[in-house]
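Table 4 source record.
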Amino acid sequence: MHAEIDTSGVLHWESEEVEDSTEFIVQQFKWNRWVNVDTVKGTEGDQYHFTSRVYLFHGKNRIRILHHATDTNTYADTVSMDVPNIPEVSYACSVNMDKVKFSAETPYEIIDAHGHTVRSGFGNSVSVKDLDEGMYFLNVENKTEEIIVRKTW
């Protein structure tokens, strides 16, 4: 299985081994781990050409495809692309500490001190109003940053 990604973030690949239970799981390396970002189902008789849109971020992007079939799991070679022309997403906590604002829409995760994901999504802000005070980890683009949630109201 060979894959390529274009500059608009569309991943293209072909596979000769497609059956009704085939799934292609698209993974992106970010936040110091491989993260599932899309699942494409194949059915027997497909054209064997598949696509998936991937959110590209500033810097080095690494993408791979897990071919999940009935009896086997195989990975395609990792596709890498350096994207220097996309502005890096920054963040700031709002004045009253009830949300984290991003400079652009982006995928994000907030992880608590025990490693549990307490928020995840895609947007230009995320509410932290109902989180307990304390330290959290903010995953945005391919970075992990520490944030402190304090109740100021």
